[in-house]
Amino acid sequence: MNLSISATWRRSALWLAAAIVAILVIATRLVLSFDLSAFFPQQTTLAHDVLIEQIRHGPGSRLLVIGISGAPADELAEASDQLKQTLSADPMFVTVLNGEFSDDPEQVPEPVNSYYLLIREIDYSRSSLRQALQTRLQDLAIGGGSVLLELLARDPFLVTFDVLENLAPVDMTGDMWFAADGSAVLMAETHAASIDIAAQAEAVRSVRKSFAALPVSTPLSLELTGVGAFSVELRQTIRAEATKRSVLASGALLLVLLLVFRRPRLLLLAALPIVTGFLAGLALVSLLFDTVHGITLAFGFTLLGIAVDYPLHLFSHAQHDSGDSAIRRIWPTMRLGVISTAIAYLALVFSGSQGLAQLGIFTAGGVIVAVLATRTWLPLFLAKPQASARTESAAQQPPVLRYMAAIVVLVAALFVVYRTLDAGLWDDKLASLSPVPAQRLAADRALRSAAVTPDMRYQLVLHNDSLETLLRDSESVDLLLAAAVDDGVLENWQSVSQILPSLQTQVRRQEAIPDQHELSRRLQQALLDTPFRTDAFAAFVANASTAKSLQPLMPADISATPLRSWLDSHLIQLGDQWVALISVVRPVATELAERVDQWEIAVDFVDLQASSVDLMRDYRTGAGRTILVAALIIIGLLWYVRGQFRQTLWIALTVTAALAVTVAVASTLHGSLTVIHLVALLLVLGLGLDYALFLSRTESVSEQRATDKGVFACAASTTLAFGILAASSIPVLKFLGLTVAAGSAASFLVAWSGSRLSRKSVS
Amino acid sequence: MRTLPTIQARLTMKKAAGRRFIVALWLVTSMLLTTPSAWALELVAVLQNTTVTPPDSVGFREERHNPMLKEPMILTGHLEYLRAGVLRKVIETPFEEAFLVESDHVVIERDGEARKLPLKKSRSLRTILGAIEAILSGETARLVSVFNYELSGSTDAWSVHLTPISRRMGKQLTGLQVSGDDQSVTSIRIDLKNGEWHLMDILRNDPAP
């Protein structure tokens, strides 16, 4: 007895030491990341890379959209103006727009303010100057004000406005934005990326604080939307929902275990494998990857749920036997099950996505360590039988396995899937996974509609390893697009060369600027016979002289200005390639695509919406393909280990039928399936294999009872726990919960009816 | 790339059009701060005596003073009140240009080209147009919701000084001085924040359009 106790303590000490090592590794190595794009395929097309970059850093993702309502338009306008001024002074925001031009010409953003004479083509000839002055005179005949006069004095060609018009992320007509419902609309662009939720929360707080401090007579309402605002809202909602559902699910799990085994101590023991598995899996990915994604942890812990099954099988078989004896008897089956499950999970390593690879390694490592803990640690705590031994025949007999039930179920499920899926089996839209409530998305759309944004769906993409060559190509494309605008193929476009001309062009434009004396002479000639004062354009002459000797504008110069985000959305660096993104406004897509094909410059016409669907499809088919290969390997393994073709065929058929039922249930209740369903199906595959392997064992009658009890406990607890998640309103939890709950129940019912009903009928 | 020179020429034209577009936006505001007030103040000062029924037209002579000009710019032309909600300022000298304001858009005609710009998103323009409508239809309450006013003189020779209530409008516009007699508005002076001022004399005997 003493020997047994000391062996238990020694083994426990070893496991605890291993757990401490894992915790130390996690504490020193784990860096969490929340970059969703880690879950996208690594080997993609340029279009996919562009899409991912837009999701990560696109300026649209950093816009907080602010709506103010609850008062007459004048008061709303005052509030909008004051909020714009307050937030503009906040270092958290790159820029805050409400549609109006700035009252202060000094606020023309750099580098436009300094480089406006190099950003556009200007003809400094006397006739061109004279024509420009004449046009400005006509402007002054019906326009005026300090802003216009100061601008004209430094820029008689008005190139500043031309540049700014193209630069704005939204349409700048100079008028304050009002949504259709009368709300005044502002757009505040944050420095922080939308995935930096802490910084976004800070920005949201800042907007609310500034709004609350507005000196208004009427109480106003604030509506805040945009990716960042939604992320902040969802963090709270998801956390609360996930916590509530997890507590309920865990409670349900414990209740089932208590009802089945009636021993609270066993509940504590059941937690040991899953905790050790979790620590081992996390330590493993922390060592193998620089950062671990939050989703890897969340889904990983879910997939590790199968590890709860291992102690349940042990407890069930140890009820009339010692733990050591019981584990020896069931170990071959359990080992085969865990190897099969590990192969299925490891298939994710080859899916081509870093996030999924992490998930695969985490869960495969976790289940292996969990089963080892069940094999080597838990039996020590089950030295005595849990109940008195039964005196029944120990003669072993294989169950009579029937295929018909599985075949009927499989055919029926496939028929249901075929009938319910009008729109296709898979839903590859990223939006389908969005947990943002529909009314919040509608509010966002309504506010944004106050400012016409360029159609971000279509983009022209150029790339080159030389920035200078890329910019020259972009300038050529500008000319081609201007022709396309004239022909009505699109309304407008935004390209990097509209703010950052090539070095060659900048130098040429500098050389075209006459020296100060010559420019003054030409200007004075142009001013003859006009009502303008002779010194009216002195600021223009001085600025031209400065521009002539400016260092050429480079991307780094823009990075330190408010136009950084504009540049980031039109010029990105992917590896050693510079990529220029040209956004087009209201294009006739097919015609523009045809034109682009005919251009001598290599330009990709990218449909971001189609790309996102392609991306998800590639991701899903890639993951699906590797899982299919893994399934074939598992079948081969089962055949090799058990040596019985018919039994292997039964297991494969049973698991396939259960998966088909799961797909039928999920597609009936959720419509088309998403990648979340795919990950959940992987867990169902593991559960199905586990149940089928145990129920097809050759064992004595009493052992069969223990097996039935163990498998039932596994299936009931999993179905109940995930059934609670299925009731969630958050798509990810809902998809995961229903799929696993349905899959677990189907796996048990198909395997049990195919193995136990047959035995009874035979006997 | 053989077509480059032609495309270059088109691009230059496009840029010129872009500048005109921006300038036009400034013109819209300025125009509406000027012309509508002529109609508006006539109604405020003389009440029903000066009510205008479309279609109607008056000639004008306008002096525009600003710091960039060594001498004021003198414009002549006529103002048209075509129908309810539709106003047009036609400049005849020293160059030809026309500016039409309708309920949801403005049209600028310059150098043989007409450019239509939407007005629906512009709160400030809509507010001013609303004020004009108020004056033309005699709805004084709508006018005083936009401007503070100070009336002086007699029915035969009155003057009203209008200052915008809105702080935002006040950033551009110091005030309007509208004068008139017992039949109509005779002049409008607009003072802007930068010391710029425009004086428009309404010519009584302008022929109908």
How does this structure look, described?
The complex is a heterodimer of chains A (763) and B (209). By secondary structure, chain A is α+β, with helices and mostly antiparallel strands. In chain A, 63% of the residues lie in helices and 7% in strands. Chain A has a domain at 100-169 and 503-552. Chain A has helices spanning 2-29, 46-57, 73-88, 112-119, 126-142, 146-154, 159-167, 197-212, 227-261, 264-288, 294-303, 309-317, 323-346, 354-376, 404-420, 438-448, 467-486, 503-512, 516-527, 538-548, 555-559, 564-570, 589-598, 608-642, 645-670, 675-695, 701-726, 731-762; strands at 32-33, 63-69, 93-97, 184-190, 221-225, 292-293, 458-464, 492-494, 571-574, 577-585, 604-607. In chain A, the strands form three sheets. In chain A, strands 7, 8, 9, 10 and 11 form a five-stranded antiparallel beta sheet that branches. In chain A, strands 3-4-2-5 form a four-stranded antiparallel beta sheet, sandwiched between helices. In chain A, helix 1 (2-29) packs parallel to helix 10 and helix 13 packs antiparallel against helix 26 (675-695). The radius of gyration of chain A is 34 Å and the shape is elongated. The two termini of chain A are 43 Å apart. In chain B, a hairpin with a 2-residue loop joins strand 2 and strand 3 (86-93). In chain B, helix 1 (4-46) packs parallel to helix 2. At the A-B interface, helix 3, helix 5, helix 6, helix 7 and helix 17 of A face helix 1 and helix 2 of B.
